Structure formats: structure tokens, C-alpha cells
Prior knowledge:
- The protein is globular.
- The protein is built from 15 helices and no strands.
- By secondary structure, it is mainly alpha-helical.
- Helix content is 75%, strand content 0%.
Amino acid sequence: MKPVESLRRRVAPALEWALPYWTRGKAGRETPEDLFRLLYLGWLVAFSFKVLGASWDVSWHFKWLRDDLAPPHLLNSVGTAIALALTIIHVYTGYGVDRMAQRLIAWGTGVFLVAVPLDLINHRINGLDITSWSPSHLMLYIGTFFMICGVIRGWFVRARPGRMRTLVLGGLFVFLFENVWFPAQHQEYGVYSIAAWDRGQPEAEPILIKFAADQIGLPVDDRAVALHFALPVPDQLYPLYAVIAAVLVAVYARAMIGRMFSATAMVAVYVAFRTLIWPLLALAGFPHSAVPVFLIVGALAVDLSFLIRIPALRVLVGSLAATVLLDQALRFQHATFIAPPLVTPMTMVIGWAGLAVLWTAVEWSLSRHTLRAQEREAVVSATATP
């Protein structure tokens, strides 16, 4: 009974502190500072579990046949459980979020929870479905995307200006960037998988290779099996996704954090994480992956473009610079180390056009919803001034 009694002594004060806050309320209600920080610390913990589980999950699926109860899935589920609990708290009590943040978190969590059983059904019907770009997988990323966007908005709107606000906001953007870039890891693992196949030393276990071969009706020794398994999407998708999706997240990060080189720091932290986890997974016998170091150059182009004060000119120069520099950095990484297959310059022209259009929309949304750091701090100062 001693352990139980010890646990009760620890839990009782926490419940005594928390229970008075468990009251129904509307979004935007005044939130005590200690409760506000605890809620967002919980989000940081939840997203940390999800990132660790997801990072292991990609490598796991390039080695073993899929298993619903695989350790990476269980680790990811811990983060999901914490996120669900926090969502319930925000929705029921209204603490820590405004109405928009509450909706984003609720809808994001809802989409994610719907996607989980759909993904399980998809695997039962279609078999392996290794690609990260399948509809059910995309629903998981989209749900997580809206969830993190809601958390970012909640912290951005209600946190007090200062170093802590900047650091937490930067950390949340790292989680957002990881989620957005996650499906592109398929190609980063895929290039290593193809190289290992060509060496006659496939990294995947024989049971996984045979399963993939049976699914497309080819013999195990056919290279098409490796291509179907490792690179099942067009080569153009990877650089286009880098130019458009990765850069747009960097634009939002730079505008909302409001510090010079904040976008570069965000991407650099993500790349550092991938660089650190790479040898750990390799030592444990899991497949290797390319690390998207080239993305740092695109983020740097975004940071430098914010030196231009005229929005239209910033979009034009920034989108062109980010596209050209990303293309050249990707080619350099491909030549010196390893990276997904290269594409023709026309692909990058299409990427630049798409980025310019969407960056214009981003500039409008930043002003429309008061999401620039300087504008938000001015609002906070005006509100605090008698």
C-alpha cells in the first residue's frame, strides 16, 4: 500500500489545484498565468512524443512489415492521448485559447481521430500502402496541421511578450514544420532504399520485400519492386513541395516570431534533429535517410527577403530567391552526398509561380488576422495601457 499512498499524496494536491478550473466557459475567458503555461507545456510534451514516434515510424516502415501495435505507433499514441486531453480542456473550459484557436484545435483533433480508423481500414483493404502520400495518411498530417496551427495561435495571441514567448513560439513552429515536411521523408528514405537494393544489400526485411512484390505481382528480384516500394510518387513532387510548402511555413514563422533569422533557426533546428536521430536509428539497425540540409538555404532567403518593406516586392524577390537557392542547394547536396532525384528547370519555374501566388495570399492573411509579431505586440500594448 505504500506506493499507492505515496501516489495519492502526490496526486491530491494537483487535483485540489486543478478541479476549481474545471468549469464550463467560452473561448477567450481570462486564464491564470500558471494554468496558461501548464497547458502549453502540455502541448510541447504532446508534440515531442508525436515527433519522436513519427520519426521512428518512417524508418520502421522501411524495414518491417506494418504492425498496428509497433513501438513507434505506441509512442505516437502517447502524444495523441495528451493532445486529446488538452483539446477537451480547451473546448470545455475555454481557457488558454481564443475562439479561432479553439476551433482550429478542435477541428484538427477531430480530423486526426477520424483518419486513424480510416487508415487502419485502408491498410486492411489495400495491403502495404507504404507511401506517405496516401489519402488516409494525408488526413493524419492535415489534422495535426490544424491542431498545431490552433496551438500556435493560442500562444501567439495570449502569451506575454518576452523571451519565453519567442522561444515557445519558435518551438511550436519547429513542430509545425516537422509535420508539414513529414511526407517528404518518404523520398529521403527511398533514395537510400534504392541504393541499398542496387548494392544487393536491401535494408528492408525479406518479409516486407516479398509482401511488396506480391502486392504488385512481380518477382522479388525485380528492381520495379524497389521502385514501387521506395519511390512511388513522381520525382517532381519532392522539389515542388520544398519550394512551396516548406517556404510558406518559413514565411509564417518569420512574420509571427518577428525576429531576424527566425525562419532559418526554425529549419536549422529541424535539420539538427534529423541529423542527430539519423545515427541513432542507424546504430539500431534501421534504414538510413537523406537529411534535407538544403532547406536551410530556402529559409535564409525568406529571412533576408523580410528586409524588403514593400510586400509586393518582398513576394517577388523572396519567391524567386528561395526557388533558385533551393534548386541549387538541392543539386549541390545531390552531387556531394545524397538526395532525392533531380528534375528539369521547368519544374522549378512552376514551383516559383506557385510560391509567388501563395506567398501573396500569406501576406494578405498575415495582415487580415493580425498575425505579424509587431502588430500583435502593438495590440497587446494598447490593451494594457489604461
